[in-house]
Amino acid sequence: MKRPARVRALFALVVIAVSVYIAVTVPVRLGLDLRGGTQIVLETRSTPTAEADGEATDRTLEVLRGRVDALGVAEPTIVRSGEDRIIVELPGVQDPRKAADVLGRTAQLSVHPVLGTAAGTDKPKGEGERILADEDGERLRLDAARLTGDDVKGAEARFDQQSGAGWHVTVDFEDGKGWAGLTGEAACHPAGDPQRRVAIVLDGKIISSPQVDPSVSCDVGITGGSTQITGSFTSDEARELALLVEGGALPVPVETVEQRTVGPTLGAEAIESSAWAAVIGTALTAIFIIVVYRLMGFLATLALACYGLISYAALAGLGATLTLPGLAGFVLAIGMAVDANVLVFERAREEYGRRNRPSGRSALTAGFKGAFSAIADSNVTTLIAAALLFLLASGPVKGFGVTLGIGVLASMISALVITRVLAEFAVARRWVHRRPEVTGLASIGRVRAYLTRRDPQLMRRPRRWLAVSALVLVVTGAGIAVRGLDFGVEFTGGRLIEYSTGSAVDPDRARAALADAGFPQAVVQSSGDDRLTVRTEELTNAEAVEVAEVVAEVGGGAEKVRDELIGPSLGDELRRNALIALGLALGAQLLYLAVRFRWMFGTAAVATLAHDVVILTGVFAWLGKPIDGVFLAALLTVIGYSVNDSVVVFDRVRELWAKDRRAPLARSTNRAILQTVPRTVNTGIGVLFILAALAVLGGDSLTDFALALLIGVLVGTYSSVLTASPLAVELEAYGGGRKRGRGRGHGGSGRAKSGAEEHSGRAGAASRGE
């Protein structure tokens, strides 16, 4: 074994060993959409006296951390996101009302002397005075605050068993003199006088305004620095009040801009369905490549298993959160790994067809060498899409970008290192050398043999293919104008709640019941035999409870399985980021392809990507499917996948042009297409197995995602061959490119070998003029 082969083998062993260790010792952190729970995104707001900068957000996070810990939630997560956002994850919390109320309260505590009662038209007079209603609705005139939340040392909820007064909150102040002075002043007024009262205010509302006990002496007050806040508290209300008082005030106010709740049942179903989709889709793909490539296909299957191990270990080792779209990205990246193996094997088959007495080792070496640039370029373009998802998306879609990026890198290690080590070891065996047909590389394959016999001249009339593409573009694009786009709550703001009902519910009946209950704008859809989805404008948590009661009444019971709340500011931001992501994706692809190839190839590829985006969006418009964050993930994935096929074709055009710079572009492009079609067909079939499994077995939550990818893959495969290539030919013809030797349509007359014939070693056929 030569030194490079030993280095590759050692590297593969180290990667696999480390991956096994991490997979066994470090568990993957599941997102809330898989294990169930609530995620709340809070955004800090500036006030006239405090700016919501990074420092204020950090101080706010620490206060919120204390509140979250006091809620008693197992394994909560609270992290800062950007300059002014805080993400709180509460596993197992299905009712977000209490958590949202506790987290969103500013908790500005202050204690005031009472100056007297106030009439309905009275206004504050002196500086710092306030007029607020007490517990019984009586308006009190309050002097400026003497104590604030900063003076509180601790607070505790207690139950008075002796007097039977119920729950109260005991508050201890840091400096007892301040509390003694305040109560001593109040004690100087006669019993029953409003000025003998002390008002405790929380967030602009009087929560307690007790009279100072008659036993307290004037100017002496209550010593010890402790007091009780009494009222008709339940145990939960008393604990919540103690939590807010002790935790202190938030430095700046916060607003809930996003709230997601997923039931544990839906999460368990998603894990099970995605796992089955991964197993069945991977098994079908493995069987397919073993049938096509025999021994090499079997070794590629082993490498795919290593890919799964490496991806899982990378997720665990990086501490990344595995979300539902992330699972889909994990499964989809299997197709990318298959693509890399197919590229190598098809190149090796070409090498067998080109030489009279080839060896398995030389064919494999040539295959890896020839396929490397196409593999690198196609994976870089996919990584661009994954990076944009990570940088511009939020929530589960960001998780999809992470897993897709990890999957692409793992697929390159799997195909270029592990597969190569296994394949080179196998072909070096004597029994394999004596039986080259067992490798699956010694024959050119049925697709290539068919193309060799027919020798189609696809680029003879490129405008015909462009006309077909334009027709499809117009028909699908009309759906956007005729039907419009059904934007999801991520882009419009609002609330989407999905229920599992006791029996099947007619959406019209549920819609009428919600209208009678005061929700006339609710959009109700049935998403299964016993699933009902309600989409409205922004609702409070209390209003969401009313909606649940109405659905339970018409559905014979209702269990919330999903709840998403998106604030209008976040909806605008997500919509803006979606457009930025699409623009950057197209611009980044154009820049990369212009650098790696010629300008006309980059322009043709990006125009084809825009063509694919419009078609996929138009199909979803005709079908009435929602345009949401998951669709955006699918769309950017289609962009990455579609450009893969274009890159493979253009990479071959570049190679053929380098060998014969006098050849017209149309002829070189036609040869490149014929040479790469076997790879396109085999890769497409492998990916379709994966996506079909996701669509059928992935459950309701992944159906639209898998459908978008299925449509995108089919359209992308067609357009990369029969839209991007003809467009590049036309751009070269009319953009000042190389015109020499160009005939009316095909690129010259005379005799020339087709790509399939050249690499199969068969006799050339006359290339037909137009």
From TrEMBL:
It is a multi-pass membrane protein. Keywords: Cell membrane, Membrane, Protein transport, Translocation, Transmembrane, Transmembrane helix, Transport. It is found in: Cell membrane. Residues 737-770 are annotated as: Disordered. Its main location: membrane. The chain crosses the membrane at residues 275-293, 298-320, 326-345, 366-393, 399-423, 465-485, 578-595, 602-623, 629-650, 681-699, 705-729. Residues 255-423, 548-732 form the Protein export membrane protein SecD/SecF C-terminal domain. Residues 58-114 form the Protein translocase subunit SecDF P1 domain. Residues 134-252 form the SecDF P1 head subdomain domain. NCBIfam families: 2A0604s01, PRK13024.1-3, secD, transloc_SecF. Belongs to the SecD/SecF family. SecF subfamily. Part of the Sec protein translocase complex. Interacts with the SecYEG preprotein conducting channel. SecDF uses the proton motive force (PMF) to complete protein translocation after the ATP-dependent function of SecA. Forms a complex with SecF. Part of the essential Sec protein translocation apparatus which comprises SecA, SecYEG and auxiliary proteins SecDF. Other proteins may also be involved. This is Multifunctional fusion protein. The lineage of its organism: Bacteria, Bacillati, Actinomycetota, Actinomycetes, Kitasatosporales.
